[in-house]
């Protein structure tokens, strides 16, 4: 399509030739003639072979056409949708799907072969269940949600609208709850559920445990990366980002807009405030106030953690200097003599 036609769909102001032909979308290193791409940083402008460039502000000296947008990366994402995301087209209900009794379905539902739907399930309109999906009794899935292959959603789980669940995820598995009794571990029945609110995306092989009682809750707009563990009775707020390999223990509360980076471990019953950022591989052992940045194990304010890391790398040098000072003052000999007497 013409650049002006694309701009009408994705937004932005054209600087240059609005009639330039756009045939695809690509990253800046791989873009070729006919492609539109985007520039992330105006301070570094590589050689560009594309026909058009999405930018935040006009750049002098560039001969190719520009599409100026407040958020170039968002505009680039919309361009990808225009060229590569196919409109929803329902495939209907496969004869090879297993469907229980009292199942309610909205309009234009797609159920692929070998999906299993238990009794009393309710599916909204335009829901897609891929092959190998298991839905337990009483599960509800909201409008426009897409469940990828081999996902298990157990009984009493509620999935909101426009939710994406990637392959291998398990939602509603039993919480890890036991009572010590005479050297053994007595299982606490996990009779609660899970609520996944609207516009949530759950990555591949994520495990979200059901609550012991009540519900584990994933707030509206939250995005969970692959290989994340969410334990029983956890409450994650709205629009949070949970990155790969995070482990969240039971009854943790995470406020709206928090970012939990990769491989973070969170102790049980901890509260993490809204807007907080927890840096990668941190170990959270206590509550974190809203709007803070924490890192390290145990997690402490990020500035303090950076200073501690800087000192840690200098410890061998500091120990060597201490020993030299002790030697000059004769302290080390007195210490050694004292140790000998004890």
Describe this protein's structure.
With 342 residues, this protein is an alpha/beta fold. The chain has 3 domains: 3-84, Udp-n-acetylmuramoylalanyl-d-glutamate--2,6- Diaminopimelate Ligase, Chain: A, domain 1 (3-Layer(aba) Sandwich), CATH 3.40.1390; 151-298, Hexapeptide repeat proteins (UDP N-Acetylglucosamine Acyltransferase, domain 1); 301-342, no CATH class. 17% of the residues lie in helices and 27% in strands. It is built from 5 helices and 37 strands. The strands form 5 sheets. The protein has an 11-stranded mixed β-sheet with strand order 8-11-14-17-22-25-28-31-34-36-37, with helices on one face. A 10-stranded parallel β-sheet has the order 6-9-12-15-18-23-26-29-32-35, with no helix packed on it.
């Amino acid at each position: 399509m013409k650049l002006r036609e694309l701009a009408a769909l994705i937004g932005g102001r054209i600087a240059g030739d609005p009639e330039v032909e756009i045939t695809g979308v690509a990253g800046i290193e791989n873009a070729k003639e006919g492609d539109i791409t985007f520039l992330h940083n105006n301070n570094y402008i590589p050689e560009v072979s594309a026909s058009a460039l999405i930018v935040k502000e006009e750049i002098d000296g560039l001969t190719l056409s520009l599409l100026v947008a407040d958020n170039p990366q968002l505009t680039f994402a919309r361009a990808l949708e225009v060229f590569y995301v196919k409109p929803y087209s329902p495939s209907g209900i496969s004869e090879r799907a297993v469907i229980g009794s009292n199942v309610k379905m909205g309009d234009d539902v797609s159920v692929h072969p070998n999906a299993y739907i238990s009794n009393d399930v309710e599916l909204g309109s335009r829901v897609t269940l891929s092959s190998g999906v298991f839905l337990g009794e009483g599960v509800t899935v909201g409008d426009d949600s897409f469940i990828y292959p081999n996902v298990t959603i157990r009984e009493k789980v509620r999935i909101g609208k426009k939710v994406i669940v990637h392959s291998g995820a398990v939602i509603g598995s039993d919480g890890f709850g036991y009572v010590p009794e005479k050297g053994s571990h007595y299982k606490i029945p996990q009779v609660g559920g899970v609520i996944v609110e609207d516009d949530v995306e759950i990555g591949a092989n994520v495990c979200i445990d059901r609550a012991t009682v009540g519900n584990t809750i994933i707030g509206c707009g939250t995005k969970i990366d692959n290989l994340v563990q969410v334990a029983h009775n956890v409450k994650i707020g709205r629009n949070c980002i949970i990155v790969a390999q995070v482990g969240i223990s039971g009854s943790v509360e995470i406020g709206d807009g928090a970012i939990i980076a990769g491989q973070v471990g969170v102790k049980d019953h901890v509260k993490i405030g809204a807007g907080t950022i927890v840096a990668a591989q941190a170990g959270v052992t206590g509550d974190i106030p809203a709007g803070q940045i924490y890192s390290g194990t145990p997690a402490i304010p990020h500035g303090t953690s950076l200073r501690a890391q800087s000192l840690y790398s200098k410890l061998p040098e500091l120990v060597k200097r201490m020993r030299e000072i002790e030697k000059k003052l004769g302290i080390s000999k007195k210490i050694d003599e004292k140790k000998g007497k004890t």
